[in-house]
Amino acid sequence: MIDFELEPQVLKQVEMYHMVAAQMMRPISREYDEKEHEHPRQFWDAMWAASQSLGPAAREAAPSGKDDGGTAKLRNLYTCLSTEELCWGDAGLFLSIPNPGLGGAAVAAAGTPEQRERFLRRFREGQPKWGAMAITEPGCGSDSAAVTTTAVREGDSWVLNGTKIFCTAGQMAAEGSEGFVVVWATVDRKAGRAGIKPFVVEHNTSGMTVVRVENKLGIRASDTAMIVLENCRIPADHLLGKADVKQEAGGFKDVMATFDATRPIVAAMAIGVGRAALDFVRDFLEQNRIPMRYGLSPRRLTTIERDFMEMEVQLKAARLLTWRAAWMLDKGMRNNLEASMAKAKAGKAVTLITQKAVELLGPVGYSRKQLVEKWMRDAKINDIFEGTQQINLLIIARRILDYSSKELN
Amino acid sequence: MVSFELSDEQKMIRDTAAAFAIEQIRPAARAADESGEIPADVIAKAWELGLVRGAIPESYGGYGDIRSAVTGAIVAEELAFGDLAIALHTMAPRLLAYPVLEMGTSDQRESILPRFGTDNFVAGAAALVEPRFDFDPSALATIARRDGASYVIDGAKCVVPLAAKAETILVYAAANSDAGQAGVDGFIVAREAPGLTISEREKNMGIKALETYELMLKDCRVGAEARLGAGKGINFTRLMSESRVAMAAMATGVARAAFEYARTYAKERKAFGVPIATKQAVAFMLAEMAIEIDATRLLVWEAASRLDKGEDALKESYQARNYAAQSSLMVADNAVQVLGGHGYIREHPVEMWLRNARAFAVLDGIATV
What we know:
The complex is a heterodimer of chains A (409) and B (369).
Chain A: H1 8-34, H2 41-52, H3 56-60, H4 75-89, H5 91-96, H6 101-110, H7 113-120, E1 131-134, E2 150-154, E3 157-168, H8 170-176, E4 180-186, E5 196-202, E6 208-213, E7 224-235, H9 252-287, H10 303-330, H11 336-361, H12 363-366, H13 372-380, H14 389-401
Parallel strand pairs in A: 1-4
Antiparallel strand pairs in A: 2-3, 3-7, 4-5, 6-7
Chain B: H1 8-35, H2 40-48, H3 69-82, H4 84-91, H5 94-103, H6 106-112, E1 125-127, E2 143-147, E3 150-161, E4 168-174, E5 184-190, E6 196-201, E7 212-223, H7 236-268, E8 270-271, E9 274-275, H8 280-308, H9 314-339, H10 341-344, H11 350-358
Parallel strand pairs in B: 1-4
Antiparallel strand pairs in B: 2-3, 3-7, 4-5, 6-7, 8-9
């Protein structure tokens, strides 16, 4: 039966995340936007401690779509809810939280049970740690099948060579903690995408260097690293899945499967940022006694009412698409089309909503005294990472037209 | 618990409605648009689906089905996918039957509902929209004034479906022009009532197969028993919400019709030696159309699901309706664009869907779930 209602216990959880966002993230939001590259240690420690006290399902939060004994029936959907709340707090800080991240998601999606235990165990104990995923290169972004980083087998090792960029939490994963980076490299360039495999590179492995941490438009609390791999030697069993290029298992297809699970979460991030801006505008209008007259003929609304209502419904449309994509994953349904729809809609809607918020608020919106301008800068990334707007439209188009990537590119 | 899955019963109902739309409605759509006439057999067959009779209590000859706004939205989308004008015609009797069923006194139910519990289509209608640019359902210019034991109604209405055929029309009027929505009443007015004049059939841009009329009410006197819900009146907000959900659901159907047609065309039509769908400029238009159709449907379902829970859905249905009016127009316009010059020719249906989609800018209270 069609239903959009969250149960009381789920709402309670959401409320808890909202308190974290309001009390722990908002107060330091501006500070770590201004002081790019500085570390919100206190916040990290608190988030790490909180994650250690939760159950294994919540702790590993590896959005793989696989049932690893998680208790939540709609785990992906609930992850979207908590993500929205935390990104309402601060999307940059959210991305900086010590956790398995996309690297962990890759391990969960492509690794054997033994590898999952070996690599993910660390997130259940000790000091704060980060996992990261390195796929983008200076010469390939959306065309991630064009990876040029190589992995060559030498005895019991793989030797990696190449340059990776735009690696979220890369610095903390590679050098700042006892984490790891999942590096995507080709074992056989002639094999094309079938030859691209994920390798776990442990922190401080010799031959892996963070050469740069990017200065960005927004989400400045999150580190975005450039990582160089120079004769970086790792044990053979750090290859996730199988080396066989004929077999796609553990290969490129699994990166794409990871995206089907992470795109709704990125959409939820976007929605959190958009809601922050929307809530700010709503409060502002209320304080200025500008009412929203729902039910009135659109021809009689003021432009402010029209703009605000448009922002509000766009955000809701994005949220409903996102919930559906996450729910499908929870139900074990293929959600490739729906995940891209959610991501494309949310990325664009939130970019426009936050830009409109700055416009509606005028000098208040543009001023760095308030956070609205920051949300506009933060929002934009959601239309870019984890698949740009255009890549998601391409995926949607292929699915609705029943075209392969060769037929429509 | 959040769920995006239809019940088995809803799937069955959807499939039945979809089959009817494809097999019976769509083939008749273009000719009906050109001639302004809907074939009687299509209307008769639609009646057999129980679109109106279904919800009428068994004691009045109906099937006593439980009404659901979600199920109603699903059916409305499918029928409108076939053709908006025909869908509106087949469901028009609901405009009288449902408010009476939901908010009428037992006398009113007794006098109105049995006529919809028979084997044949019976016209019914409601008059809400008024012929002025700033028409607003919450500020009606049609006024009902109490005068002793009767009401005297003055005003003008337009886009009233089937008015010339309906024995009875539900006329919405403001009891007090300053009171806003709470002051809106429905009056059960006989077509032959003195003071009520029905114009020539309207000529509109789209939904041309649906006969609609203007109504003039001048000193139109009705008895106190004509006031829907008698002393209690009606919950106009709820009726508007049900109407908005229906409008938005039908807009989704029109949009989906245009999208699917354009998609098929784009895969067949070649330019520069390849199907135009293999060009990103076209493929991305189709992708955005697909996103907006799904987004609209989810907004509709959310509002409908609130109605089914008996919750207030003023804001949600209003959002869905306004969103649907925009998105369906965008999708229909894109569909014409995908077909290019061919889209502009009446040989293809997309130009009709563009005209029909624009109707959602003016339609209110012309369908209900």
